[in-house]
């Protein structure tokens, strides 16, 4: 990252955007390290090359709360109720879009057209492929990197596991099993993280799916983006995913199971790797001897880097702005997850038939 200071504006001022977490006790610093559970504002105020210049929300009370909460660290951040006014006034370099799931598109497009250099959009990228494609097209034409905060992609263990698979440690990857539990195991709000993790490892295009929604959602043919506070506005789902490279996936999302059941198992022709999808580790690697059928087991413990979590998300975005290249969580990658989730809805509508994902 260069010495330039980047001006950042956030649209949407709820907890993921501006929450304050307590400082760690001495001698630990409130540094830019493992910021995965921190908000955007908490991360930005600790990063020397990024300046949170402005925050926008339709609800003035949230802006008042933001000003009060961050009065010491961010006294100069301006607040707006109209994001277009913020874009016009603030000469922003980076735009963060943290509005409801169905309200990302206009803000991303207007931000790119206003001249921001890079955009970080909250997950899921959108609730329809039309919206996703409009963002991807406009940002692509204007050369504005558009990254999506599927935050497990900036977790070291995810990369250690993928590197292990790429090195052939379990042979050819053929099957992925994921379970996702807890009362907020909603498909779009939270399942998007799990399905994105599946795409991260499958490294292929989704082709076909079978989807079955939670009981009581037989008429649920689209997600309206309002699942946030109300799990009943976004059902859980179970399903199968077939990728073009032949990898098969079983995804089991259930609100009725325990919260800590977010589990992934990746099976290859010679072994398997399993870990909890909070990605705090360790991951267990089992390599099988074909004759003895006795696994040789070892564990992968996540390396702790000084910059990871949301701090890595921002560091990478600035690097892509300055030097080009492709980030780990592009909008094109996030589009695959949207195809799969919409495919689950489509399949359920057809009596859980095997169906092509919408393209
Ligand atoms: N990455 C993560 O782990 C994570 C965690 C939580 C939420 N999220 C994502 O962050 C986003 C926000 O989540 P939420 O639960 O706070 O959503 P929410 O719907 O509860 O709140 C969104 C906020 O955006 C504001 N808003 C909507 N349209 C606006 C506009 N045009 N201009 C200004 N403000 C506008 C609303 O007033 C509201 O305060 C969602 O996309 C959600 O999926 C991500």
Spell out the blueprint of helices and strands.
Blueprint: E1 6-11, H1 15-18, H2 40-44, E2 50-56, H3 60-69, E3 78-80, H4 83-90, E4 94-97, H5 105-114, E5 118-121, H6 129-142, E6 146-148, H7 156-166, E7 173-181, H8 187-202, E8 206-213, E9 237-243, E10 248-254, E11 263-268, E12 271-276, E13 283-288, E14 295-300, H9 309-323, H10 331-349, E15 355-356
Parallel strand pairs: 1-2, 1-4, 2-3, 4-5, 5-6, 7-10
Antiparallel strand pairs: 7-11, 8-9, 8-15, 9-10, 11-12, 12-13, 13-14
Helix pairs in contact: 4-5, 5-6, 6-10, 8-10
Residues 11-14, 16, 56-59, 62, 83, 98-101, 103, 122-123, 149, 151, 189, 228-229 line the site of nicotinamide-adenine-dinucleotide.
What order do the helices and strands follow?
Answer: EHHEHEHEHEHEHEHEEEEEEEHHE
Tally the structural domains.
2
Oligomer: single chain
Query: Terminal Cα separation, in Å?
Result: 36 Å
Number of DSSP E strands: 15
Q: For the record, what CATH class of the largest domain applies? A: Alpha Beta
Mean pLDDT reading: 93
Account of the 3D structure:
The protein has helices at 15-18, 40-44, 60-69, 83-90, 105-114, 129-142, 156-166, 187-202, 309-323, 331-349; strands spanning 6-11, 50-56, 78-80, 94-97, 118-121, 146-148, 173-181, 206-213, 237-243, 248-254, 263-268, 271-276, 283-288, 295-300, 355-356. The chain is globular. It contains 10 helices and 15 strands. It is 31% helix and 23% strand. It is of the alpha/beta class. The chain has 2 domains: 6-149, Rossmann fold; 153-305 and 338-356, Dihydrodipicolinate Reductase, domain 2 (2-Layer Sandwich), CATH 3.30.360. Mean pLDDT is 93; it is low at 32-36. Helix 4 packs parallel to helix 5 (105-114), helix 5 packs parallel to helix 6 and helix 6 (129-142) runs antiparallel to helix 10. The two termini are 36 Å apart. Bound molecules: nicotinamide-adenine-dinucleotide.
């Amino acid at each position: 990252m260069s010495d330039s200071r980047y001006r950042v504006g956030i649209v949407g001022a709820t907890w993921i955007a501006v929450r304050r977490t307590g400082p760690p006790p001495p001698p630990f610093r409130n540094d830019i390290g493992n910021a995965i559970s921190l908000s955007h504002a908490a991360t930005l105020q600790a990063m020397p090359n990024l300046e949170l210049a402005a925050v926008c929300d339709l609800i003035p009370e949230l802006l008042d709360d933001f000003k009060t909460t961050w009065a010491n660290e961010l006294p100069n951040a301006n607040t707006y109720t109209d994001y277009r006014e913020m874009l016009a006034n603030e000469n922003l370099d980076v735009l963060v879009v943290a509005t409801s799931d169905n309200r990302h598109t206009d803000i991303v497009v207007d931000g790119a057209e206003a001249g921001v250099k890079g955009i970080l959009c909250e997950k899921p990228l959108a609730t329809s492929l039309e919206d996703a494609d409009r963002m991807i097209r406009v940002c692509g034409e204007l050369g504005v990197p558009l990254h999506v905060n599927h935050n497990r992609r900036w977790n070291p263990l995810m990369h250690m596991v993928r590197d292990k698979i790429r090195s052939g440690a379990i042979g050819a990857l053929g099957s992925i099993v994921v379970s996702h539990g807890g009362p907020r195991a909603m498909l779009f709000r939270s399942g998007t993280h799990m399905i994105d993790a599946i795409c991260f490892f499958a490294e292929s295009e989704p082709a076909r799916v079978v989807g079955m929604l939670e009981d009581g959602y037989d008429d649920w043919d689209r997600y309206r983006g309002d699942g946030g506070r109300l799990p009943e506005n976004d059902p859980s789902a179970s399903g199968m995913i077939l990728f073009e490279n032949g990898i098969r996936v079983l995804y089991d999302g259930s609100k009725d199971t325990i919260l800590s059941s977010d589990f992934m198992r990746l099976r290859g022709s010679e072994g398997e790797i399993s870990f909890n999808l909070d990605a705090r580790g360790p991951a267990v690697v089992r390599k099988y001897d074909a004759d003895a059928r006795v696994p040789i087991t070892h564990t992968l413990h996540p390396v702790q880097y000084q910059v990871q979590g949301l701090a890595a998300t921002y560091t990478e975005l600035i690097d892509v702005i300055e030097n080009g290249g492709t980030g780990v969580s592009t909008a094109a990658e996030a589009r695959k997850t949207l195809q799969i989730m919409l495919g689950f809805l489509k399949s359920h509508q057809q009596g859980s038939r095997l169906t092509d994902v919408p393209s």
